[in-house]
Amino acid sequence: MKNKLDNWFEEQRNCFDIAEPADDHEARFLAKLKATPVNQNSVRKLNWWKPLAAAAAVLIVFFVGYSTYQPSVNADLAAVSPEMAKTQDFFTKAIEEELYNINEARTPETQKLVNDALKQLKVLENDYSKLTEDLTESGEDKRVIYAMISNFQARINLLTSVLEEIESIKNTDYENQLL
After folding, report:
1. CA distance linking residue 98 with residue 158, whole number of Å
2. How far from chain centre, in Å, is Cα 99?
3. Alpha-carbon span 133 to 76, nearest angstrom
4. What percent of the chain has pLDDT over 90?
5. Contact 102, 164 (CB under 8 A)
6. Within 10 Å of residue 152's Cβ, how many Cβ atoms?
7. What pLDDT, on the 0 to 100 scale, is given for residue 15?
């Protein structure tokens, strides 16, 4: 191996720049260096610019890393287990269906009732959001899970009672028209 390397250097000897600089090379270089004006402001800018750029790069890396590492703030019922995910899906679909039925049955006579029900539903949804935060902090505490399920049930009960009340108002109006 060493012999091959020595042979290669021998073959390439003419390709290397081995010429000696002229005797006055250093003097000419120093004269050019002295002739070039030095701007003190640019030197100062370079002195603080590099540490500032390095600090900015470190901050960017820190914030990007923190934002990707940060755990999700709100875990919902589906994050607990597959069974809880099915439960959440069931309740969510039931609530959506009840809301659809209420919107279909809405009339000018029932408008105030529906608006009040939607306000109460919003309060229950806000409570559920707080419960998701509690679930994240408590580490899947059973009491929080039961409270979340109770919240879903309360929403469904609210919507069901509103739908029943709407039907009752419609039936009363129909009976009054018959008389």
Report:
1. 10
2. 29
3. 8
4. 15
5. no
6. 19
7. 76
CB 152 within 8 A of CB 91: yes
**Helix, strand, coil in percent for the chain, rounding step 5:** 85, 0, 15
**Per-residue pLDDT tens over the stretch 35-49:** 877 665 555 555 666
The pLDDT assigned to 124 comes to: 92
User: What gap in Å lies between CA 103 and CA 170, rounded to an integer?
Assistant: 14
Longest Cα–Cα distance in the chain: 126
Look at the chain and count its residues: 179
Encoded tokens for 137: 């902090």
Tokens of residue 73, six digits: 């703030």
The DSSP symbol for 77 reads G
CA 160, 161, 163: angle at the middle one, nearest 5?
Answer: 65
Q: Please, is 146 exposed, middle or buried when counting C-beta atoms within 10 Å of its C-beta (0-12, 13-18, 19+)?
A: exposed
Average pLDDT of span 150-171: 90
Mean pLDDT for the stretch of residues 123-128: 92
User: Amino acid identity, residue 158?
Assistant: L
